[in-house]
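Attaching the record inline, Q. Sequence:
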Amino acid sequence: MNVKQYIAARAAKELKQGDIVNLGIGIPTMVADFIPPGVHVFLHSENGILGVGPTPDQAHIDKELVNAGKLPVTVMEGSAFFDSASSFAMIRGGHVTVSILGVLQIDAKGRIANWAVPGKSVLGVGGAMDLLEGSKKIIVTTMHTTNEGESKIVKELTYPITSERIVDLIITDLAVFSVKRDGLHLIELAPGISLKEVQQKTEAPFHIAESIIGNEVNA
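Structure, as predicted:
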């Protein structure tokens, strides 16, 4: 399992029976392959599918069956297809239980930027703004740093903000943070990762769970 698969698998553990779940572009699409056994959820794609299944193998790819990121998908028995307007009505109507989104940056308050990079053309806003405002719970999945080694968890956003809505959980290749009114709370370290490494690679300030401090002291 590579690090992106680890992040997706960790996010999948947050899903509960009966959740209606929207998977954003990037790492979130991989969550479909790691739904825990015995947990039945309904995966939603804003291009008009409810009931997305695991990633198809090469022998079973249908070029006409794709998710919002234009990646091939399978569908589960009983799945439904509808137009984009109906799909966004579901989102805006508060019918999505959990949205799992990729990001460019997260700030110290838990707000995200994930739709535009300054100086680069924007093909479309996409559904992130609607998902942030309409979903009951927001989980972010991302690598902790950029390819250049810069923290994605920053004091202040330098990319255009997506929404004032703060996210609920941040899952990276290094750690898991919950987001509360007083900021970010480090609640879990990834296997083999130390608190010191997370501190070095996180620009934004954060609180540390007592369990993590205790484990570091006893290590």
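The radius of gyration is 17 Å. Residues 17 and 181 are 27 Å apart (CA to CA).

More tomorrow.
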